[in-house]
Amino acid sequence: QKEVEQNSGPLSVPEGAIASLNCTYSDRVSQSFFWYRQYSGKSPELIMSIYSNGDKEDGRFTAQLNKASQYVSLLIRDSQPSDSATYLCAVINFGNEKLTFGTGTRLTIIP
Amino acid sequence: SQTIHQWPATLVQPVGSPLSLECTVEGTSNPNLYWYRQAAGRGLQLLFYSVGIGQISSEVPQNLSASRPQDRQFILSSKKLLLSDSGFYLCAWAPPGRGYTIYFGEGSWLTVV
Q1: Omega of the bond leading into A10 within 30 degrees of 0 (cis)
Q2: Please, are residues A47 and A56 in contact by the beta-carbon 8 Å criterion?
């Protein structure tokens, strides 16, 4: 089982709709969770971090964490064409200094 | 504010040639430093990480090596490149301590021919 799993997509969402991206992780001691956005040919950039169960909102983005189910998601409201990118889920536990990434979900926003 | 610089941005190297990628971080002290590789269409693979000068942890056995000669400098090297070394190499940093957010440099595209 992979440590961090994501559906590779592609996920196509109409402009203005809500895009929902999902991620599961296998290590129960994982403590911190991150979503990165990566445009084609560019390096990943941080969108959101979440540490506690529940929802965390930042503008059009909402991260959701459920540690019991080992599940983290990212919702993008009012999707824009500029949101088209690959979204990477990453987890880290306090036992080490390493961030483990999923393989990413490719999101396409259709105008 | 903190910034991270990585170079060169792109390079094409023949099989068997050496490699040196360099990364520096500004605006912070004693950062955690990382080298990741992203092969075409694949996820990010952690290659090396360092929590201090001269302290290097290797995640994947391979023909690559890393060094940290100064607090904010991280170097990725190879004596002889393989075709399979082609990919997008990313240097990253995080504040010292545990569980902090990692920030990436702009990346280096390596093509081994």
Answers
A1: yes
A2: no
Measured between beta carbons, the chain A residues lying within 8 angstroms of B59 are 98
- Measured in angstroms, the CA of A32 and the nearest CA of chain B are apart by 6
Separation CA A67–CA A33 (nearest Å): 10
Minimal Cα distance from A35: which residue of B? B101
Per-residue pLDDT of chain B (113 residues; tens, 9 = 90+): 889 999 999 999 999 999 999 999 999 999 999 999 998 767 899 999 998 999 998 887 678 999 999 999 999 999 999 999 999 999 999 988 766 788 999 999 999 99
Q: Which residues of A touch B49 (CB under 8 A)?
A: 97-98
What are the DSSP calls for B21-76, one per residue? EEEEEES-SS-EEEEEEE-TTS-EEEEEEEEETTEEEESS-SSEEEEEEETTEEEE
A63-95 residue pLDDT tens: 999 999 999 999 999 999 999 999 999 998 766
Q: Do A92 and B104 touch (CB under 8 A)?
A: no
**Chain B residue with the nearest C-alpha to that of A105:** B43
